[in-house]
């Protein structure tokens, strides 16, 4: 078993690659823009990145993480909404092209596994990990192993319905958690506040050039960090929804630790603090049971590729 | 390892005991009323029941299932709302009294484990099991093992909040799932329909002698089974809530099978059919992923003691 493995993180805008050692350290990095949705183009880019990592990665197994559902064997991309892929035999094709073993993982599973092995969740065998960005991705570690469920699709926390009949979600349903506690939720509420000409939205209106479409989750959060009262309100509201959903996850899974990563998770201490407060005041049975700790992720944007590499090393190495 | 184990199911009104073989068959049975909340009295009754099971059970390990939270080691009743126990060292006390090994389990965990080992979930390694009665208990089998979480409290499905600000729950929170999809939900809605003098409630009013307090979940369900239109509506409504919650559990856990047991689960095929329909029309990502099957439990009221016995045999035998 080689101490090195290669991790690939296929995102909607970029593909990141890294040569990762057995301690989760990224030794060499590579990065390319995602070449559209065509599987053959993505495959070619991944192959280039693997070669680019140099002789240290020669023969190392390759773990690929991407948004979407992988089958439980890590062979097929069953469905990837962002890449518009369906039943794509990416593992077989990559193994042929690279001449070595490959494993596919869901990107949130990979990130959560990385935090468990090398990051914020080291030493805690029952962990819920959230990737908080435009939506909410998730992963589950119970009794020291990643739990993917029967079909490889566990951890879709963002799509638990928390408000029946509520806001429409990109998944087609209504009232999904990620419509209330994510970057998209901040953006929608910010735009909505501009649209009603809310007087409190003065700062947001100026920052957005009076253009509602310029209001993003990042903008709302950065204004909140800078002290804008209206944006602070929006972040606190999203944090309360986040905490309520954490309480639901704790009722179901009873983790010892909940890790919150992702772009928004990393950028907003206020969101995390509010979420933890709400979680602690919402957990069913509080006062009669211990609380899970709520912490920020430690590995940042590298988590996906580190976890994909480690999962591949463990399964194939 | 003895082929026999003893299972004890401590309920609010009765304590059931059984000598259980390695195939989950109950060979000898015993039963007593629950002697109130006093731990010493409950312990004495359990000891009597164990002796009553006769020489076949001599020396057999004892598994005890009860409503409430057990620590992960199966040693202490951390909290049992129905028995008013807190931090009760029941295992130690029973081991001293009985002179043999004892393991404590949550009753819903025990029932779910029994369905996995010997009942409706045989052969499926990723299972969610619901005990649907006055409330909703639950258990999780992932990758072939019961998952209890960090503190032994996983599977509290009934207390996921599905309607923020909704009906008050016995747990103190608002909007818990079990306030919408359980025997208590049927009772509350039935009483509410009587209270507003709903003309459709004629059958229920007669059956309850015009006394709202006589409206129970069992009554509403039995009237529905008998064809009462208003009660059918109430059961269908509860079934829709049940299905919505199943979709949430599937989003989080991705089981291959969901088993619905408990008194109400066994008594209402309409509730289960409605729940499955709603689950299938609510699952996030439907059309792009397989559905978990939704089935009724097979072991009936014996599930708790069979599972408690088997868990004890596996851990101690």
TrEMBL record, chains A, B:
One Pfam family this sequence matches: ROK
Keyword Transferase set for record: yes
SUPFAM superfamilies in the record: Actin-like ATPase domain
Enzyme Commission number(s) of this protein: 2.7.1.2
Main enzyme class: transferase
GO MF entry, a single one: glucokinase activity
Assigned keywords, A-Z: Transferase
Domain of life per record: Bacteria
Family per similarity comment: Belongs to the ROK (NagC/XylR) family.
Listed name of the protein: Glucokinase
Organism listed in the record: Paeniglutamicibacter kerguelensis
């Amino acid at each position: 078993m080689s101490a090195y493995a290669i991790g690939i993180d296929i995102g909607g805008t970029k593909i990141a690659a890294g040569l990762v050692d057995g301690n989760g350290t990224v030794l060499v990095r590579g990065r390319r823009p995602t070449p559209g949705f065509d599987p053959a183009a993505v495959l070619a880019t991944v192959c280039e990145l693997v070669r680019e990592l140099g002789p240290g990665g020669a023969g190392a197994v390759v773990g690929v993480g991407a948004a979407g559902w992988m089958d439980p064997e890590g062979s097929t991309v069953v469905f990837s909404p962002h890449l518009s892929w369906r039943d794509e035999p990416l593992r077989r094709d990559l193994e042929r092209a690279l001449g070595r073993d490959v494993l596919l993982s869901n990107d949130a599973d990979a990130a959560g596994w990385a935090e468990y092995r090398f990051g914020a969740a080291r030493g805690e065998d029952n962990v819920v990990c959230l990737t908080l960005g435009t939506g909410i991705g998730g992963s589950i570690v119970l009794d020291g192993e990643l739990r993917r469920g029967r079909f490889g699709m566990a951890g879709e926390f963002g799509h638990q319905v928390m408000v029946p009949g509520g806001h429409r979600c990109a998944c087609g349903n209504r009232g999904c958690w990620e419509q209330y506690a994510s970057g998209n939720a901040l953006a929608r509420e910010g735009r909505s506040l501009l649209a009603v000409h809310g007087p409190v939205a003065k700062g947001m209106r100026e920052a957005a050039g009076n253009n509602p479409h310029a209001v993003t989750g990042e903008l709302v959060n950065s204004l909140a960090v800078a002290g804008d009262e209206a944006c602070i309100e929006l972040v606190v509201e999203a944090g309360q929804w986040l905490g309520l959903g954490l309480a639901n996850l704790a009722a179901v899974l009873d983790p010892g630790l909940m890790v919150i990563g992702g772009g928004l998770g990393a950028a907003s201490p206020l969101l995390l603090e509010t979420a933890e407060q709400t979680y602690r005041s919402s957990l069913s049975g509080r006062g009669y049971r211990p609380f899970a700790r709520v912490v920020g992720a430690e590995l940042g944007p590298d988590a996906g590729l580190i976890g994909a590499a480690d999962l591949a090393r463990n399964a194939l190495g």
